[in-house]
Fold this sequence. Notes:
Chain A is mainly α. Chain A has one domain (3-302): ABC transporter involved in vitamin B12 uptake, BtuC (Orthogonal Bundle), CATH 1.10.3470. Chain A is built from 13 helices and two strands. In chain A, helix 1 crosses helix 11 and helix 2 packs antiparallel against helix 3. The longest helix of chain A is centred in the N-terminal third of the chain and has 27 residues, at 3-29. Chain A starts with a helix and ends in a 5-residue tail after the last helix. Residues 303-307 of chain A have low confidence and may be disordered. Chain B contains nine helices and ten strands. The longest helix of chain B is centred in the last third of the chain and has 23 residues, at 241-263. In chain B, helix 3 packs parallel to helix 5 (151-163) and helix 5 runs parallel beside helix 6. Chain B has a six-stranded mixed sheet with strand order 6-7-8-3-9-10, sandwiched between helices. A four-stranded antiparallel sheet of chain B has the order 2-1-4-5, with helices on one face. Chain A binds chain B through residues 160, 162-168, 170-171, 174-175, 177-186, 241, and chain B through 53-55, 74-77, 79-80, 83-84, 86, 91-98, 101, 104-106, 108-111, 113-119, 145, 165.
Amino acid sequence: MSLIATLGAIEIGLVFALVALGVYITFRVLDFPDLTVDGTLPLGAAVAAAMIAGGINPVWATAAAIIAGCLAGTVTAWLNIRFAILHLLAGILTMTALFSINLRVMGVPNIPLMNRPTVIDFFTWLNPFIAAMGLPARPTLRVMALLIIVTVIAALLARFLKTEFGLAMRATGANPRMARAQGIRTDMYIYVGVALSNGLVALAGALFAQTAGFADVSIGTGTIIAGLAAVILGETIFRTRSIVVAVFSCLIGAIAYRLAIALALNAGWLGLRASDLNLVTAVLVGIALMLPGVANPLRSLFKRSAP
Amino acid sequence: MISVRDVHVTFGRGTPLENRALRGLDLAVADGEFITVIGSNGAGKSTLLNVLSGDARAESGTVEVDGIDVTRWPTPKRAGLIARVFQDPMAGTCERLTIEENMALAQARGRTRGLGPALDKPRRVLFRDKLAMLGLGLEDRLGDSMGLLSGGQRQAVSLLMSTLAGTKTLLLDEHTAALDPRTAAFVLDLTRRIVEEQKLTALMVTHSMRDALDHGSRTVMLHEGKVAFDIAGERRKTMDVPDLLQLFKQVRGEELADDSLLLS
């Protein structure tokens, strides 16, 4: 595998690390399997791309994308809490609606962002170091910038989950009845958690648009499975009870997963094409759910218990 | 202080499974009183605790705690006044979280939870001291996940957690029913100690007539959603399990007689 291909895999892995963090919050912390993210990732990309193409500062565009994602998550939580719609279905409803909304936001199915300012431009101070290392300039800059952004966000999230507020959110997912008896307004924590999760995924979408150089309505398909794959892989690599390690294992999982995919696609004798990605991902996640003995938080959600 | 006045609770109203769990229940508990509650299945014992904690809502009547009308308050809001220990050792704690995290959750009961760290050194010292009082060696296992503890250990920690926020009302829902006799005796003794030391107002639901007489200062029997008898003071002191059983049978027997009258 070439250096460029490796850097490309790490780059997309870092973008999906944010998706993995979002999925970790809903599936693992809140025990709220949220499928909205298949719509929130392109929503984030759409909002950021449309605004940047319209000449707005990329920082504001990215912030707007995060807010849009939070709103989408709030809608899903609202459907579930206010109207008692099953969380899986509430997520699918929002995701379906988002497909149309994303087209409205963009106006066209695809917005190119070639030669537009992006948040990556704020990291050009890294260029001398990259040149000194003799690595290809643009791809390495994107990877370094993403690495900084994603690491800071993961650290903030890990810290947040250790606050009183974050601990109450974890209790909401772990034992809602006990949480309420301890004075925790579980509904409020579900709203905040699902909004936060979708905000992170929308940020991933906004960064995807700015690093890949385009936004497209179709990029959301399979987001949830890719996020789950990263979370499961991370938890398999690091078996831990520490919340800090668990958060960072999502990052490692996302990058390892993309590298593995890139290796598989590069191995000519396997005869795989880039379009086989979703099939490979689904098969891998399926196998992870089947394997016995793997410490798997999703088993209880997606598998019926043995008779 | 607890005051329950003419409370009615009906589950599944208008369905074939309609169940009138409480039918005009009246109960007043003075500050520092420790009441044991008995009654057969379906008498309304658990519903009484749920109506106090907020897990069930009174359709009519009022519920007051410490002089505040909490009838319409949801469970989390009432948690600032009331602590509860559940029957199922799994229900009262989070097994995925550590012992110290569970205790931190309980300590913040009734407070706003902010963005400060949930655990710090003073809190860990406090939790360690509290756990040491149990004599179970848990003070050296603050970072262990709750799921590693036995049922008895979890109930003991649950009891400890109920005292951390300084609330004065404690609800105990058959909290020893899932334990073996020796552990149950330990947890009951701990309950007595905690209620006395913290001067709590406590309501303990139990299936055991022995425990109902041995603990607390007053025993209430529920039957068909109402208080069937209420004994305290000298009368209670001289009572033994057979006497209580006799009283129990009398209440139920009269009901039977009523039924037979109706049917004849």
